[in-house]
UniProtKB/TrEMBL annotation:
Protein name, entry field: LacI family DNA-binding transcriptional regulator
Keywords: DNA-binding, Transcription, Transcription regulation
A GO molecular-function descriptor: DNA-binding transcription factor activity
Residue ranges of domain HTH lacI-type in the record: 2-58
UniProt-listed SMART domains: HTH_LACI
Length: 336
């Protein structure tokens, strides 16, 4: 592609002269012959102005969809943070985006929305994935990897995070460690009977390897403060209450805090708590919550970058990217 410097060299004039002629600067004091010569050379060299180049840049449109409804998303800062990061970056890079809802995708009301790509946040079942694939083949999954050969995905190292949390509690002297987390979600894919809950699986493996697995102190519901509250209420009815709990999401930990305090127990004097996610409110709880930090902004940034690679045809092989997590030690755990 020809540049102003190329034209200036060919026309034997300065770069600034070429620039002012091409920008139709009428105050420039040059002969009409020089002006015509520069324009003629620019045309021969197929010179394209910056303004024209920008107008030729394709505007991409992507969809952002969560695996749950709008109300549930509003109650989970983890997923909101991911989506807002993606939207902010799209606005910055002049990428159009549409927020889609899973129920409308299932009833086919958005199948003709002409998207270049799709970012799917959360866990999707087989029939839902099939519906997404009919919208576009360029899909990046965040927080799940349903088929790493067919789709791009961005996930976090859950096994490392849970292991670090449990090792921390063990080093503080805790052995009777309870688990509060989400139920395993059924999967309709014929090759899998269920999705793997890596938080629970890692907890079970760790406790088994240390000869401390106890099914009676494993409580499961959904990743909400309400279920964290209810499940902790159940746990506090045990004859022997665990000295510590690993709680698989910070919103659940918030609910658990309320149940513990209502029952007259203190954190961490009576019960130590570790959460997972490090949502914004975690540091403002009383006491501040020790938790495993998931870098949600980096997840959103990585997913958008990977999707644009795929849309622009820069590769054909799918990517599965595993992002690190970090244990954030605060005040909710005590040595015993």
């Amino acid at each position: 592609m020809a540049t102003i410097k190329d034209i200036a060299s060919e026309a034997n004039v300065s770069i600034s002269t070429v620039s002012r002629i091409l920008n139709l600067d009428k105050s420039l004091n040059v002969s009409e012959d020089t002006r015509k010569r520069v324009l003629s050379i620019a045309e021969e060299m197929n010179y394209i102005t910056i303004k024209e180049r920008k107008s030729k840049i394709k505007n991409y449109t992507i969809g952002i969809v969560c695996s749950f409804d709008e109300e549930k998303e509003l109650n989970d800062p983890y997923f909101i943070s991911i989506r807002m990061t993606i939207e902010k970056l799209c606005s910055k890079d002049n990428i159009d985006y549409k927020t889609l809802y899973l129920d409308k995708i299932i009833d086919n009301s958005v199948k003709h929305c002409n998207l270049d790509g799709l970012i799917a946040i959360g866990i999707f079942q087989g029939d839902e994935i099939e519906k997404l694939s009919k919208i576009t083949k360029n899909i990046v999954f965040i927080d799940s990897s349903p088929d790493e050969w067919e789709f791009d995905s961005v996930v976090v190292d859950l096994k490392y995070g849970v292991t670090k949390a449990l090792e921390y509690l063990y080093n503080l002297g805790h052995r009777n460690i309870g688990y509060i987390g989400a139920k395993v979600i059924p999967h309709s894919n014929k090759d899998h009977n269920e999705l793997i809950n890596y938080r629970e699986v890692t907890y079970r493996d760790f406790m088994t390897n240390n000869n401390n697995l106890d099914e009676s102190i494993i409580f499961k519901g959904s990743f909400t403060p309400e279920d964290g509250y209810k499940l902790m209420q159940e746990a506090l009815e045990l004859r022997k209450i665990p000295t510590a709990f690993f709680i698989a999401s910070d919103p659940m930990a918030i609910g658990a805090y309320k149940a513990i305090q209502e029952k007259g127990y203190k954190i961490p004097e009576d019960i130590s708590i570790i959460g997972f996610d490090d949502i914004a409110t975690a540091q403002f709880l009383t006491p501040s919550l020790t938790t495993v930090k998931v870098f949600t902004d980096f997840m959103g940034e990585t997913a958008l970058s990977v999707l644009m690679e795929k849309i622009k045809g820069e590769r054909t092989l799918s990517k599965k990217i595993l992002l690190p997590v970090k244990l954030i030690i605060r005040d909710s755990c005590k040595e015993i």
